[in-house]
Amino acid sequence: MTVPLSILDLSPISSGSDAGAALRNTIDLARRAESFGYHRFWVAEHHFAPGVASAAPAVLIGLIAAATDRIRVGSGAVQVGHQTALSVVEQFGLIDAVHPGRLDLGLGRSGRRGSFAPTPVAARPARVVDGLLIPPPFDFSRLLTQPRFALFAQLLQQPGAQSPDFAEVVDDIRALIAGTYTRDGLDVHATPGEGAKVELWILGSSAGQSATVAGERGLPFAANYHVAPASVLEAVSAYRAAFRPGVLDRPYVVVSADVVVAPSAAAAKHLASPYRHWVRSIRTGAGAIPFPTPAEAAAAPWTDEDQALVQDRLDTQFVGDPASVAAQLRTLRRATGADELLVTTITHDHADRVRSFELLAREWHGAPSEV
Known about the structure:
Elements: E1 5-9, H1 19-36, E2 40-43, H2 57-67, E3 72-75, E4 78-79, H3 85-98, E5 103-108, E6 127-129, E7 132-134, H4 141-144, H5 147-156, H6 166-178, E8 182-183, E9 186-187, E10 198-204, H7 209-216, E11 221-224, H8 232-242, E12 253-261, H9 265-272, H10 275-283, H11 294-299, H12 304-315, E13 318-320, H13 322-336, E14 340-344, H14 350-364
Parallel strand pairs: 1-2, 1-14, 2-3, 3-5, 4-5, 5-10, 10-11, 11-12, 12-13, 12-14
Antiparallel strand pairs: 6-7, 8-9
Helix pairs in contact: 1-2, 1-14, 2-3, 3-6, 7-8, 10-12, 13-14
């Protein structure tokens, strides 16, 4: 059985362009995604990235919801360390009041004070599980010791602010939406927000607290193969092991993948060629650069050290013609047991990105591909 296919978009800024064009492209892509038959359209939250415009998910989601009719729209994910539970509920409650029943509120632990603290990762060789490549884990510890990350944390929160435990934030958001929030004997009601018909999601990249919180509360869980391919199986397993019936009667897992689709494998490889430079910019601490053209990427310096820095992300990006990428996605689905797949695509030209999603949707849903 074909599982639903959804989109995660970062509003990428292309070289020579700007944030306004990137955001307009995202809104256009959401309209197209709806016509292509995608189930959801999520936007990410990123900060201090010259090549990514999706800094405020709730604002962007409101614009997308206004421009579409049926597709579910949501966050992948709101970084709750930057906001209070009330502010998150009010923002999404406001959008739901105008576009009821179409919103997914995805929550992530990232952005909390202390989340930039380095945690060394144990080395592990690459392995293949049921046809899916699980690469060695990438160690962010050296990157996160850079002074800029401490500055980021300061800029993203009020001075002296303390991030509550992630489980507490999730419970507060649920209580505010349900209208059951109390503290010190007083009840509090969010307007808008209380009674909002939003689906609550937890996103995670490891077998840590996010997976456990999602499972223990019976919430749906989204695991990141495109960001942290080395730990996707552990994340999904931890969620399922912790699952107790709650909002859901059974576990529900979405798994993400980075894809580029074109009429031919050679054309797809050409469109995806700047990806390595984009990933390198993230992993060197510069923040995602504006996405280069293939010609700009080919002319830029590249070393063996650069290659090693991004190898795991290159090896797990699905690039090719519609049939080959669909086959790789089916492998991802089989190995993880995913109930739904979430794909993200970055190319320099917006038209190529739209075409990639269109070709994949046609192949996935069994429609003739007009290549």
